Amino acid sequence: ISQNIRIGGTLMAIFLIFLLTAIFVKVPFSPVAFFTITMMKIVFINSFGAILQGSLFGLAALFPASYTTPIMSGQGLAGAFAAISMICALASGSSLEDNAFGYFITACVVVLLALLSYMALIRLVR
């Protein structure tokens, strides 16, 4: 499987799962159905995330060693961004449902920006 498909495909899959999650925030489910769907989404997001991470490190390995440092820094920044987003959501005083919806829509926007940036990068190389 080509690197472009691995990176672009996993970003698209993660985007779609986060979008589905944002939509499901507004849909009432029984606790068992909600738990089952949530666990399935977690498995898929983490699986696609692992493929994406491996593909990004594989891409960085084609360049000098100094290119892996920005990837590691970006992963740390992503963790900090998620924590800050959660703090802002809690500080807003909104309902839990609205906080969750905003949180997942923000994730959709970030993943979509990453996908569009990667597509622009591919066009620059050609």
Automatic annotation (TrEMBL):
A molecular function GO annotation: nucleoside transmembrane transporter activity
Recorded family membership: Belongs to the SLC29A/ENT transporter (TC 2.A.57) family.
GO biological process, one term: uridine transmembrane transport
Topology term for the membrane: Multi-pass membrane protein
Keyword Membrane: yes
Transmembrane intervals: 12-37, 43-65, 77-94, 100-121
Membrane is among the record's keywords: yes
Subcellular location per the Swiss-Prot or TrEMBL entry: Membrane
GO CC term (a single one): plasma membrane
Chief subcellular location: membrane
InterPro entries assigned: Eqnu_transpt
Domain of life the protein comes from: Eukaryota
Protein name as catalogued: Equilibrative nucleoside transporter 1
